[in-house]
Amino acid sequence: MRSEALEDGVQQVRVKLLEQERTRGGLRHRGAWLATVAGRVALDAHRARQHERGLAERIRHRDPPAVSDQGRSAEQRELALVVAQALEGLDMEVRRLVVLRFYADLSVRQIAEQLDVPEGTVKSRLHAAMRSLRQRLRETEVV
Questions:
Q1: Using CA atoms, how far apart are residues 139 and 142, in angstroms rounded to an integer?
Q2: I need a surface site. Which of 21, 64, 101, 122 has the fewest CB within 10 A?
Q3: Coiled coil where (predicted)?
Q4: With contact defined as beta carbons under 8 Å apart, do 55 and 104 qualify?
Q5: What is the 3-state secondary structure (H, E, C) of the chain?
Q6: Looking at residues 133-137, what average pLDDT do you find?
């Protein structure tokens, strides 16, 4: 796994170098630039691993529903099913944004970085997705 992560990091640095040379026509201080970019790529990978560990830890420590919450738990399962069906009606890219934001608990900035799009694009697409979901849920009389 570590070897794959290292290879992925090296590949990301290579791609960034090619993009930089293509758009700017070269670098004056190539070594310094490479060191900076490699450090940032490593830091991003470290943060992503920490985030994944945090999610796994939160999931592991969730308490099972109490017996007295059986009715509420059934309602929650039904609501989750209705929301999942509404999500299926969204475009794949928009659905991906909603899942990253609300199920993977990524920030708008993290989503923008992961998808390589501006933060404003993520925000506007999420807003449109939520409006569409709200409409779908109103049609099923959930909201």
A1: 8
A2: 64
A3: none
A4: yes
A5: CHHHHHHHHHHHHHHHHHHHHHHHCCCCCHHHHHHHHHHHHHHHHHHHHHHHHHHHHHHHCCCCCCHHHHHHHHHHHHHHHHHHHHHHCCCHHHHHHHHHHHHCCCCHHHHHHHHCCCHHHHHHHHHHHHHHHHHHHHHCCCC
A6: 84
**5 with 41: CB under 8 angstroms?**
no
State the pLDDT confidence band at 61, using cuts at 50, 70 and 90: low
Is the CB of residue 75 less than 8 Å from the CB of residue 121? no
Q: Is residue 67 predicted with pLDDT exceeding 50?
A: no
74-141 CATH fold: Arc Repressor Mutant, subunit A (1.10.10)
pTM: 0.47
**Residues 5, 6, 11, 16, CA torsion sign:** positive
| Gyration radius of the chain's alpha carbons | 21
